[in-house]
Amino acid sequence: MSxxxxxxxxxxxxxxxxxxxxxxGDEILSGSVVDTNTPWLAKLLHSRGVDLVRVLYIPxxxxxxxxxxxxxRSRVGPSGxxxxxxxxxxxxxxVT
Length: 96
Fold this sequence. Notes:
It contains 4 helices and 3 strands. The chain has 96 residues and is of the alpha/beta class. It has one domain: MoaB/Mog-like domain (Molybdenum Cofactor Biosythetic Enzyme, Chain A, 3-Layer(aba) Sandwich), CATH 3.40.980.10. A 3-stranded parallel β-sheet has the order 2-1-3, with helices on both faces.
């Protein structure tokens, strides 16, 4: 059982689909914006039997985004899901 499954109050089924979430944004990391998407998505995935195995918080950096996506993909396997959140604002630093 992953830590996320334990924290969500139950065990994911053996062989359950796996997911990772990459949260992008300097504003999230600095605390100027509160991340409400991660708890919502974690609860939704758990209710659907998907094991959220990794959440990465990263800055608005093309290099960091690329590395985080590769890391997330490696953790969920070829049939898993990788979600992204943030990084799509109208400012120059949002590069996704």
